[in-house]
Amino acid sequence: MIKKNISILAIESSCDDTSASVVVDGHVLSNITANQTVHQTYGGVIPELASRQHLINIIPVIDVALKTAEVSLKDIDAIAFTRGPGLLGSLIVGVSMAKSLALSLDIPLVEVHHIRAHVLAHFADEPKPPFPFLCLTVSGGHTQIELVHDYNNIEILGKTIDDAAGEAFDKTGKIIGLDYPAGPIIDKLAQEGQPIFSFPEPQVGSLDFSFSGLKTSILYFLQKEMAVNPNFIQENLADICCSVQTTIVHILIKKLSKAAAMTGIKHIGIAGGVSANSALRHTLDLTGKNKGWTTYIPSFQYCTDNAGMIGVAGYYKYLDGVFTDQHVTPLAKM
Ligand code: KG4
Ligand code: ZN
Questions:
Q1: Is 72 exposed, middle or buried (0-12, 13-18, 19+ CB in 10 A)?
Q2: Position 332 in a domain
Q3: Using the 8-state DSSP alphabet, how is residue 313 labeled?
């Protein structure tokens, strides 16, 4: 008998979110994520704390993902997992769980590249972009523009030469005393402010990005203002957030527009944690209307780290018959 439905159990543990999902024939039936709050006051993810939390969370998260999808382990055809890039200790937890499940159920393993999965998050939802399309993938660790030829053929056109866009948000947040991750907090505060402060934008050729200079100029600007008024940050918090956010979004959209002009492609998406940013979503929408693009923005649950996107990416690798053996090890960089 030919089996009709391909059911994938997907596991994501690359950073500080433990996530599991059941994806059947490319449709996400469940997408369950346990966020970690232990890092909030440290200004960044503490790797050792992250891996310990993954150990605590992973079995309950998988259990809820299966129950929500009303699927049992015996119905699963393959285990998809994030091999990297990410924090090694965090990845080890997800990779070990994936390997143990595949071994005990005697089913294939499908390794997934975390950043490519962010791009394929566009296929977890409607409307799905046609090939080829351009994707700006912006997360805590990556910022790049991809030309997506097919599910398993993604070409990187440009990337950051130093910090990622998410890091620019998070490091600014640390400077102005916000909890980690600062991106969503800056987004919220910015809604009450105006972009009255301006910061120099990087002059990087090609389609590459740079954000480390911006972080330094924000720091020097604030140090100068605080020398005159020690309450400058508290008194101008919303305007500072709005100004920083506007600059980051402008840098991103400018490069995306350049990539669109260079390739002539008019189907354009954004992905990754920073694509949850309301100003980036709004500006993409406006720019798209001006330039005649059709734009694609994943729903919030598929923007930040989630196993749904890992299951979707795993499904398309499964269809191509690309499997991994039990010797696989996690890769912090890949
Ligand atoms: O993709 P993601 O969940 O994890 C990585 O793969 O890195 O991205 C996390 C990043 C963090 O830097 C966080 O501050 C940022 O996404 N982020 C946001 C927003 N939501 C999450 N940045 C700006 N505005 C947001 N609303
Ligand atoms: Zn991510």
A1: exposed
A2: no
A3: H
Q: Of ligand 1's atoms, which has the minimum distance to the CA of residue 118?
A: 1
Q: Rounded to two decimals, what is the model's pTM?
A: 0.93
Same domain, 147 and 247: yes
**CB-neighbour burial class of residue 125 (10 A; exposed 0-12, middle 13-18, buried 19+):** middle
Entry field: residues in the chain? 334
The response to whether residue 166 sits with its C-beta less than 6 Å from ligand 1 reads yes
Which residue range forms the structural domain that includes residue 215? 126-297
15 with 87: CB under 8 angstroms?
yes
Q: To which H or E segment does residue 9 belong? A: strand 7-12
- Per the structure, how many domains does the chain have? 2
Tens digits of residue pLDDT in 72-119:
999 999 999 999 999 999 999 999 999 999 999 999 999 999 999 999
Question: How many A from CA of 16 to the centre of ligand 2?
Answer: 10
Q: Is 170 in the pocket of ligand 1 (CB under 6 A)?
A: yes
Claim to verify: residue 136 and residue 181 sit in the same structural domain:
yes
The answer on pLDDT for 2 being more than 60 is: no
